[in-house]
Write a structure and sequence with these properties.
It is a single chain. The chain contains five helices and twelve strands. It is α+β, with helices and mostly antiparallel strands. A seven-stranded antiparallel β-sheet has the order 1-9-5-12-4-2-3. The chain has a three-stranded antiparallel β-sheet with strand order 8-7-10, with no helix packed on it. The N and C termini lie far apart (about 45 Å).
Length: about 250
Amino acid sequence: MAMTFPPPYTAEDGVLAALRDDGYAVLSPAMVAAMAGMVPADIAGLQIGWDDLPLDGYLRDGGSYRRRRHSCFTVGGEGAQLAPHRAHWQSLDYNALHGGMERMYQPLSPTLTGLPAWSRLLESLGALFSQVRAARPWYVEAHQFRIDTSDGIGRPTPEGAHRDGVDFVAVFVVERHGIKGGETRVFDAAGPDGHRFTLEDPWSLLLLDDTRVIHESTPIQPLAADAIGHRDTLVLTYRSGAFQGED
């Protein structure tokens, strides 16, 4: 069994300082709930729709290991508002594998996005990020991912270590089932400093200042040769000014 490194959970009163000083922070599920002014059961109640994600038809490596949905929101003075459905776009500067093309995915389920806990989660993250970098409104893209081992191996970040072209990124690990691997790696974009750890607790959270660090997740493999495992994540990106491709 390969060695795994436990997540370096940030102290509850140190999240802002970690984002400002280090460019990233790691929150336990209990800290996520506290940040959003909820109880853990409210956060766990957001686990809706991962068993019903369509295949991602845009993978340029020919794989069939990724399922995905995508929706857009604005977060500002009027809370979290669903934006008109649009394609996901990144420049080649940030995604050499899939950049430069419009990728239209099916939206997140209204059952999920209509929950009060969903709006509170988006709003609380927006408020946190505005304390690091004053900006409102935030243009938020929400991605539901399932990476599975149906191809024998699943790649959470087939583009490799990267930035997303936004201001901040929030990566929630929602579930790990029957897998090994999926290690998170965070690197200083301007130097050699790097950190590695594995997020395993449901609804643990990695926060990233996308202007300062690059990140990746290593491939996953099944624990049993005759079984298919998966890793479910929710990725929220926060950008000031406009959605990518609109400015």
